[in-house]
Design a protein that fits this description.
By secondary structure, the protein is an alpha/beta fold. It contains eleven helices and five strands.
Length: 254
């Protein structure tokens, strides 16, 4: 049983920021190599889910971890309020369309979990309905994993309430970040405890384990996530496909 209150949101003590940033750069270069291998082999795919409270760094982590990768094989999708068409279907209809094809990495900035978080916090669906949706999500992720060789890697962006306050205030105080400000983020902050309960419940009901990423320190957040992504890709034991024809060898002998 995971208890978020018992897990640190900050970097371990004793780490050198410069050393960690250098190591993270090497890891990101390796991620790029592995992504190219995945794209060439076309046997596997990776779905990376970033979920967390407002200002937990979902966009920042996406840029930092995948900036070395070719856009041909990596893309990100941010889930917002469903459209009228999406509302007229089951809640996973719009999600399935964004799942990665073989050979690709897809990043979900927010995800299908929004429909068992914000709706549950605000009482827009019943507890029974929420639990049914979590069961449906487990089945959906099973389908991706076993029917399409899609590894699902889910990060809970573990942010402290104090750090969130600092980040939200930055969006007001820093002119370069004013565009990020949204009054609604401050309203959602009032429901911090409810969100924390719902996140913890989802994490513990999930069939595919979540990775709890400490994100208060941006430099460590990026390293931590990059390291886990790299380890996940390495475990796929991918390789570049061999040449399928000897036509060039024959021509060179002629």
């Amino acid at each position: 049983m995971i208890k978020l209150s018992e897990i640190p949101t900050t970097a371990p003590k004793g780490l050198d920021k410069k050393d960690i940033n250098k190591e993270r750069k090497k890891i990101c270069e390796r991620i790029s190599e592995l992504q190219e291998m995945m794209y060439a082999e076309k046997k596997n795919s990776l779905l990376v889910v970033f979920q967390g409270m407002d200002s937990s760094g979902k966009d920042g982590a996406t840029h930092a971890v995948f900036s070395e990768c070719s856009p041909a094989g990596v893309s990100a999708y941010g889930f917002k309020k469903p459209t009228d068409l999406e509302f007229s279907h089951d809640f996973l209809w719009r999600v399935h369309q964004q799942a990665p094809e073989k050979g690709h990495i897809k990043i979900f900035i927010r995800s299908h979990y929004e429909d068992v978080l914000i709706q549950r916090v605000h009482g827009w669906i019943s507890e029974e309905h929420a639990i049914k949706r979590i069961e449906a999500i487990n089945a959906f992720e099973d389908l991706l994993q076993f029917d399409n060789n899609t590894t699902v890697l889910k990060f809970y962006m573990h942010l402290s309430k104090e750090r969130q306050l600092e980040k939200l205030q930055e969006r007001i105080d820093d002119p370069d970040k004013n565009w990020k400000h949204n009054d609604q983020d401050w309203e959602e902050r009032k429901h911090w405890d409810k969100y924390r309960f719902c996140y913890e419940d989802v994490i513990n009901r999930s069939k595919i384990p979540w990775v709890i990423a400490p994100v208060d320190d941006r430099w460590y957040r990026n390293y931590f996530i990059a390291k886990k992504v790299c380890e996940t890709l390495e475990a796929m034991n991918m390789k570049f496909p061999a040449l399928k024809t000897d036509i060039y060898a024959k021509e060179s002998k002629a």
